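Q: What would this complex look like in 3D?
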Amino acid sequence: MSASATARRVAVAAERKHSLHRQRLWALWGSYIALGVFVFMFLVPPFYTLITSLKSSAEISAQTGSPWLVHHPTLDNFWYLITYPNFQTYYLNSVLVTILVVAVSMVISVLAAFSLSRMGFWGSQTLSTGVFLTYLIPPSLLFIPLFQIIGAIGLINNFWCLVLLYPTLAVPFCTWIMIGYFSSIPKELDEAALIDGAGYLQILWRIFIPVAMPGIIAATIFAFTVSWGAFLYPLAYLYTSNQMVLTVGIISDLIRGDVFQWGKIMAACLLASLPPIVIYAFLMDYYVAGLTAGATKG
Amino acid sequence: MADGTSIPIGAIAPGKTAGRRGTMRKFAQRRSTIGFLLCLPLILLIAGFVIYPAFYAIYLSMLNKKMTAFVGLGNFAFLLQRHTFQLVIFQSCLFAITAVVLKAFIGFILAHLMHNIPGKNQRIWRGLLLVPWVIPLALSTLTWWWMFDPSYSAFNWVLNQFGLANVPWLGVGWIARFCTITVNVWFGTPFFMIMYLAALKSVPEQLYEAASIDGAGTMQKLFFVTLPMMRNIIAITVLFSLIVTFADFDIVRILTAGGPQDMTHVFATYAFQVGIQSGDIPLGASVSLFMFPILAFAAFFVLRGVTQRTKEIAT
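A: Here is my prediction, written as structure tokens for the whole assembly.
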């Protein structure tokens, strides 16, 4: 009798374990299905960009059949853009502006973060708070007075004004990320270096930058993203096609009056989104780590 | 605040002899001078292109259109009386609040779904979900515009397949407002997802085990363990996103340019139209400045949240 009771208890326990297992499996599959639905919804616009970019203007305006499919795929749109001098100019301008902005922003923010995380001076606490507050200022708050200022400097309709202005958007957050990473480096490390007779710049270059490399990568990607995708400043300050960058160039050049060359516009969007997509595909982990660290700790 | 001054200068082994104290002080002085010099580019940048423009904006907003006479608060009073500007205030708030609530909600669900699946698969799913956020917003909004196009709308084709009538996506006020919010939610949700996912991962597993032993259900775990542990991150992310969304320019500018009948204008696009396109710089500057109170309000709470969070981590 006691043996059969034990057997029953074991059976019940096994069944409960089994049902728990099944419940977990259901939760897992449910999560996958729900995620699949979300991914599908999120990827509809990029997919449609790709589909449209492969169509000829005739196929787009014919309106026969589903717009979600491409019947006669062609690379003409891409070929047109690659050989189109204006588009080449936009691309080159974007690349040039971005490289300069990233370089300038990183130099400014790494130096400042090193100083703010290690060397106290009068007002350094206020400054680091101020840097964070600057990060919260959106570009649309100050673009009109900046329009006047840029005009006074004589850089209206000159992409060099972007090289001056984009760092104001990138530097605060880059500095903030770097302060976080630098603060986490043990102080014994730089004290030891100081005792060995290293200068501050040597400490920064030989110890801080190599140790905080993940943070540097995250900050670089941030500066790149800001500078590659910004739209308001170039739209407000640039108006001839030899000075434009990609975001405004595509919109103002390929949209002429009411004639929309959608195939070419979508191909241009794809080509312009390529650098960020490639960079994120390889370095996403660093960026996500830096971003979440930036918001969760100081 | 990211404990800035790491080594309090006075605390470095107070020297016993006067001579040593002098050297110490000289060392500290030199240290802080170098520190200041390293910060100088940052200070110049912020002073020149953030602080100066901010005060200049206040000055500009008090001039008349030709910038010849001082009108005090005339521009602000004029704006508040205009029906269009009242619409702008309403729409900016509607746009920001609806979009942020939706983003926070969907982002929370997505983060939980991601947290459910095994870690090794998370990377690829996260990559796919982050695509909207990776493409520059101005460019992806163009695609949305094309999908909402009145005569070639891909969405309308799908609706027609189900026997439904065409929808004038960007042609009717409330539908256009809905479209701008949709695009913003599409773009911004991934950001919430990664922030919440990071927060979820930082909740200690023991808390859930303890709750299970005490007999808590899934819902109870959510409300009494997960949400309290994530409270700070949720607050920071929401407030931060509120600032960004409130000041958004790209979506409305490209999708509707403020139309139909100014029913989608937000502060940024209206300031652009008034200040740059119509050339009324002072009025444009005052439109932008109207954003300042709400931004300052949100910024204050973000800063407080971040400071608290830092203290929590430090202790």
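A: To summarize the key features: The beta strands of chain A are 255-256, 259-260. The first strand of chain A starts at residue 255 and ends at 256.
Q: Very helpful, thank you.
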